[in-house]
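Researcher: Can you fold this with pyridoxal-5'-phosphate in place?
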Amino acid sequence: MINQNYLKLPGSYLFATIGRKVKEYSEANPDKSIVRLGIGDVSLPLAPAVVKAMHEAADLMGREVKGYPDYEGYDFLRETIVEHDYRTRGTDISSDEIFVNDGAKCDSADLGDIFSLDCKVAVCDPVYPVYVDSNALVGRAGDYLTETGRWSNLIYMPCYASNNFVPEFPTENPDLIYLCFPNNPTGAAVTKAQLQEWVDYANKIGAVIIFDAAYEAYISEEDVPHTIYECEGAKTCAIEMRSFSKNAGFTGTRLGFTVIPKELVRDGVSLHTLWTKHQETKMNGVSYIVQAAGAAVYTLEGKAETNAQVAFYMKNAQIIRNSLADMGYTVSGGVNSPYVWLKTPGSMTSWEFFDYLLENANVVGTPGSGFGSCGEGYFRLTGFGSRENTEEALRRIRAL
Ligand SMILES: *Cc1c(COP(=O)(O)O)cnc(C)c1O
């Protein structure tokens, strides 16, 4: 017998549909050049310091045996992470609380494994689909309701313009709360005071927050926390996920890490111990070459080069945000995140605006409704394109 939950998943409807529509349009209009600002993938190559470290690591592996790495990652990387990402922020995370992985997506999908299937899960709407779909595959989300596009057993926390795209506490108490700030897709950020309220709330009701900080490097404002552990009491309620994908262009290299503080205990059991068992059972570490490349991101050269990449994408986001605002669009995001979230004009749905932009400007973005029903009437553009494409897209949108 198969896991029937897999059949309940409606599938990668969003990006499949975008791909099909773009393909159909370009086949019918072969003379048109299409500009894509829908992607969540980087467009700059790896930084020279990173490539150099990869080469050196490969050479080293040709001279001496580097067998199975530790499940939790090499100490040299975990210590570097602690020093640069946590100690500098005044937090006392220790290196043995870091679990190195091959990117944040896997852990954001797998962390649910250490919790009971009876846990009630809360997610933002709109949301990064992995949190929802991974819970659906194990049966924790209930049934998919086509009419609403929602799962019967999830708690949805709407993120609207009226709450600045930061959710309010749900009316029903959740056991697991997925939060992602700075946010994909809305680009919204939380202040430290706002995140502190969530930490206090989780500690009060005994919930665990799974905090996705994949866009930490894009934070530009002073009062936005870089890690949830800047909040008091977070070590007894929060797991944090980080990625090298967006700050250092590792989307094709694969590297990330998860932080599980040792104080985080539920049912009298340390979640750190449970996750150690999970990793020992289900993974065999991340390659030495990739971890060496990751450590190079923290060197002086690596920092300068990757900061310049982030600044480049942020400049794109700023160009998108400012130009659209100048044209009269209602926009948010793009300040602490590479994503700009815009209100579709008039009463256009997200997909109507997608078609309108594709057909009239030959520009591709991402319909907000694809991230959840509260994303209806919104549209996501990303700063991850080239400067030329970004500027060209805006020229075309302005000409409409
Ligand atoms: C891109 C992204 C990640 C990172 O995924 P990787 O597997 O590390 O490439 C995680 N969370 C969100 C919300 C993202 O947009």
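Model: Folded with pyridoxal-5'-phosphate in place. DSSP finds 13 helices and 17 strands in the chain.
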